[in-house]
Predict the structure.
Amino acid sequence: MNLREKLKKSRDALNRKLGLVFGEGVDENTLELAEEILLASDLGWELTELVLERFRKEFKLNRDSSWKVILVDILEELLPENKSWSSDAKPAVTMVVGVNGAGKTTTIARLSQAITRDGHSVLMGCADTYRAAASEQLALWGERLGIPVHTSIEGTDPGSVTFDAIKKAQTLKLDHVIIDTAGRLPTQKGLMDELSKVYRVAGKAMEGAPHRVLLVLDGTVGQNALPQAQQFMKFIPVTDIVVTKLDGTAKGGSVFAMARELNLPIRYIGVGEGADDLVVFDGRTFVEAIVGGND
Ligand SMILES: Nc1nc2c(ncn2[C@@H]2O[C@H](COP(=O)(O)OP(=O)(O)OP(=O)(O)O)[C@@H](O)[C@H]2O)c(=O)[nH]1
Ligand SMILES: [Mg+2]
């Protein structure tokens, strides 16, 4: 299934609805309806106003302008181009954080699969020592995908698990180690302090580690995930954003607001529950999938 089909809900909310509205011609009434549609797709007030302004301007210049071309253009402009990520460190240490159920563990499994397919080696480390069966969940993924897992025992210190996982990856001369952490709310001060500690312990295991920190956001929450994300960033230097579950929501527009408000690259998006449903995010492809072309 291609990206356009995976993002069908967002595509329907934008492409199809705007098509119907603009099909009736362009006037103030059309623009008002377009505003409602853009807001419903969770583009947010600020970006919606930017888009409307552009519509007004372009339609004034040329009544026959294509709303789709205008929208694709402005949305592409809003997303900064992602430089691809790489690290000279060996192992490159990635830490994955986020609220409960956001999709951290699933993201790690799928990311590790992609790394393996690229011909690199990876160890998945389970520093989620809170949730019963968190380690088993990661171990199960490891078995399915043929990827080694550094498991942990419930109740042990997540810092020491992280330390051991990095040391193991060093000993085995692996290219990557990805550390899973327990889901937590930014209001849980004790757990957030613990996350900072895990971050520091990684640096003790290996200088410069972790080399990247992925914050996983649930796409179905849309822009409401922003305050949470900003809180996380106070406790730990997040480097990249992952937005999951975009297959299950019409709020695909929130991705633009997230990129803008958090000022971090959107690195991957989750578009399904399967092992292949994590996609390297590319702004142009994403915009094409939710607005561009004909159905
Ligand atoms: N539809 C869909 N479901 C997803 C996606 N990513 C994750 N999920 C589902 O979301 C649920 C939670 O995923 P996990 O990876 O366990 O989330 P987590 O953040 O590790 O959860 P905790 O460890 O409990 O905090 C699972 O049922 C996943 O299959 C996605 O992109 N699309
Ligand atoms: Mg998990």
Remarks:
- The first strand starts at residue 92 and ends at 97.
- The two ends are 15 Å apart (CA to CA).
